[in-house]
Amino acid sequence: MNKQKKLEELYKQCIEELKSINIDLQKNRLIETKINTRSKKRYGCCKKLSKDRFQIEISEWVMDLNEDIIKNTIMHELIHCMPRCNNHGEYFKNYATVINEKLGYNVSRTGNKERDFKESNLNYTEKPIKFNYKIVCENCNYNFFRQRVKKNFTRWYRCGKCGGKFKIFKLRNAINTNCQKIRISQSTN
Questions:
Q1: Could you tell me the pTM of the whole model?
Q2: Out of 65, 96, 176, 185, which could bridge 69 as a Cys pair, Cβ 3.0 to 4.6 Å?
Q3: CB–CB of 118/124 below 8 Å?
Q4: How far, in Å, CA of 31 to CA of 15, rounded?
Q5: What is the pLDDT of residues 98-139, one digit of tens each?
Q6: Phi-psi region for residue 152, left (φ > 0), alpha (ψ -120 to 50) or beta?
Q7: Which CATH number fits domain 3-119: 1.10.10.10, 3.40.50.300, 3.30.300.30, 3.30.2010.10?
């Protein structure tokens, strides 16, 4: 079975499971499924195409994992199709809790790629990331690295630790390292 057909079949199973707990997504919404062949990091995404039309993309590499992991990813993205669930806030968490308790899923905000590969009996290898930019908080001097930076990054975002502004430095030689995470805040200006 090819990956798109497998995705469609697992999607149908997820929809039927949701109906069994009185969540009928197809009543008011059109949801399309698609395999994303470009994404290497994320499991999937949900795109809102119009008021009641959504597209769920599942990364191609996820389709090589166990079916329960694929269905968990589909359920995560289906929650994003529900009203007020376009982020991982309170409504998302409430739906995830209900689905986890009633259907035995493990829907969470993020996945664990290394664990999921191990559970699927696949070898997990992650290439080091080449960072091209160093970002420094002007206030507390906290720094982190990024491959790409949005055009208006310094205008839109502030340091999540102190609220300070960022300065961006282009690196002459890219740095190979594991990804560093920082909480940044979106500016309200």
A1: 0.74
A2: 65
A3: yes
A4: 11
A5: 999 999 999 999 999 999 999 999 998 887 878 999 999 999
A6: alpha
A7: 3.30.2010.10
